[in-house]
Design goal:
Two copies of one chain form a homodimer. By secondary structure, chain A is of the alpha/beta class. Chain A has a domain of about 270 residues: Rossmann fold. Helices cover about 40% and strands about 15% of the residues of chain A. Chain A is built from 19 helices and 15 strands. At the A-B interface, helix 6, helix 8, helix 16 and helix 18 of A face helix 6, helix 8, helix 16 and helix 18 of B.
Chain lengths: ~450, ~450
Amino acid sequence: MSDDGKVMLSEKDQPQRWCNILPFLPEPIKPYLSPQTMKPATPDELRVLFPMELIKQEFSSEEYIEIPDDVLQLYRIYRPSPLVRAHRLEKALGTPARIYYKNESVSPAGSHKANTSIPQAYYNKQEGVKRLVTETGAGQWGSALSLAGALLGDMEIKVYMVRVSYQQKPYRSILMRTWGASVVPSPSDQTQSGRALLATDPNHPGSLGIAISEAVEEVATRKERDSHYALGSVLNHVLLHQTIIGEEALKQFALIGEKPDVLVGCVGGGSNFGGFVIPFAKEKLLGRRDVRILAVEPAACPTLTKGIFAFDYGDEAKLGPVAEMYTLGHDFIPSGIHAGGLRYHGDSPLISMLKKHNVIEAVAHNQLDVFEAAQLFARTEGIVVAPETAHAVKSAIEEALKAKARNERKVIAFCLSGHGNFDMAAYDDYLAGKLENHVHPEEKIAEALHRLPIVNA
Amino acid sequence: MSDDGKVMLSEKDQPQRWCNILPFLPEPIKPYLSPQTMKPATPDELRVLFPMELIKQEFSSEEYIEIPDDVLQLYRIYRPSPLVRAHRLEKALGTPARIYYKNESVSPAGSHKANTSIPQAYYNKQEGVKRLVTETGAGQWGSALSLAGALLGDMEIKVYMVRVSYQQKPYRSILMRTWGASVVPSPSDQTQSGRALLATDPNHPGSLGIAISEAVEEVATRKERDSHYALGSVLNHVLLHQTIIGEEALKQFALIGEKPDVLVGCVGGGSNFGGFVIPFAKEKLLGRRDVRILAVEPAACPTLTKGIFAFDYGDEAKLGPVAEMYTLGHDFIPSGIHAGGLRYHGDSPLISMLKKHNVIEAVAHNQLDVFEAAQLFARTEGIVVAPETAHAVKSAIEEALKAKARNERKVIAFCLSGHGNFDMAAYDDYLAGKLENHVHPEEKIAEALHRLPIVNA
């Protein structure tokens, strides 16, 4: 470790495999259901959307999965990512705790999302698929898949971007186009589900659930049959690829002889959180490690803290697989907080299972508290984080202040999932005192939960 | 070196000193003149603007200057920066040349500018100055000084931002404010020189020369006498701090046993270029190294390729020191190209001297060619570069294609001075076919050169 606490991994120490926690879960994840039949989805239903290798990974019982050489080579553009001790933040807080962050903002797309966009594009290309369709909300995932398409080469990327984000964040779609992708605002006139919504409102603002429906519909119904779908969070194979974060962090902590007492990450679908904590959670499940693991979500979309564990649809038009997870109901529309990446009604089935069995805890924060924390972080550590990441910063600070009150030398580590270079309008609102807290009324949540396809709570 | 050619320096190899080329120049740089008397500026005139330690560095005859520990610690937030082999770009060009780039976009402010903003804030704080005033055009420098102010702590930063950039790039000023700085569009009503211009045009678009005048005027006339001025380029001490780039690159090339045949950097005031090439240029001057060094500027502001070597004012209102340099005339207003950081009428006296003695060469490129190169780079290497940096990318590609035509295995290295996350509007214009080339008419340059204070060519 250097004086200032930046822990770099040398190339020879770079992890060569992803960590699969599926075989170690306290209870197996129930199979996905077909949205038409509510019976377990057949492999053929999944093969329309995904390449065989990713389907295998989705259900794998191997403890580790080797990372292909070509993927490792592309990872090295920005990996290993640094683990950094936040000395100046600690000082500002006057805490005896040691705070570390794993900096995933270093990828050219600015977040952890490239960790899975690169292998997803790679496996598709291996199976001869040269066209991928996806959705994006705030734009982190769409950017990362566009980047992966450019890096793999000879790969076409089409992105359905939630219209309200498309309009509010024009720079994100330009970034995707610079990498060669095509981007359309959703709902669009290019799909049946999009046209139906435009008929009700020509300026429909869209939602992540709607954009997923459009992308899935295009892939399933396109005459050329040349495309696959790609998802940036929620699914097991996505979290698997993200475990590169935690695998590196394990080695970095070992290098400096430090053991984190608390791990913190923000949760929307669960991919940066899962990627960071899974290698530690596995050790915890095996009784080899004692660590608190804390998932942080917005009070405006409190899936893990106020949702229920049940089967639900993943998308608005009920086209994709139905999964058992914590959910607020597939037609739950959270308020327009700036952390667009955390505005998803459901959660990764894997993270949901860890929560159900108390391997992890969850907490929800208000928007104003979260931006106050992000500003303190920017002014002490220099990095202006994404609004999503700001949730993790808030909890890390809260834990550090608790340690101060108890005079405990805790080690706190959080995942800095992305930078906020494309989210400056949110900081502008915060600095101008225009930001509001949005707590979702409990009765609206209860109402949305009544519309679940199968209630098994 | 890793398979993909990312060369990282370990902490123990991190350079601990800056490289001063002043004692090795073929001809000494003439002293700055006072704009009032046209006689050599007195130390007192400079002490109004800068702390003593920076004035000493400005005229130092030491071969190396030790970097203070506190500065080294803050450098480590993002340094050493990686030296990367651009394998995928090489493949796309089909060139036998090896192309490397030194990636300075990794700082939290997104460019090399933090390399000097941090020591400038540090030395001012050491001498008890807790308020710094500066100007910024495109915003890279203003951001970097705001970041440094936050990192040093207890330091107030005030930025005069060229009004047209302030309006076109709102995200840049929000970024500075997030770090705690105050930002005003220039010309402003806060200075005499600003008010005079607003009287002629209340929506005056401003220029870098005007913003410098306002910052210098505020520092020199402020009643409290509590502020210093900070400049992000041109001066010797600024280029000195930037030599951390080249000192690292020297070690990185030595590590992999590679010798660059051509070094490339974009030039506005000359700070990233100087910082990258000076350690190599010193070796060249001492006869220890044979290397071509190529400065790249925009055709719209062709200081080194079409200016003359003469004494000229550095700012519009003739308040700052007069320096001998390549210049297009202090009232030369270049067209509104997107590379705002390269729109300066003059050039670093140090770089000018190296050019005068043919230690370096210069070339100018058109805006469209430059963005075409940047797009190819984004789609092969993943990084969307700043419009300024795109000029260096263009020349690196040109050199690689020359090597291909001659079947030469040249080693080409360029400085990737910053990312383009805040310049997406420029890429949007390029993708939409709206970008134009702006070549400045020769007669306008000749006209501007007639207004030099002393013509000694």
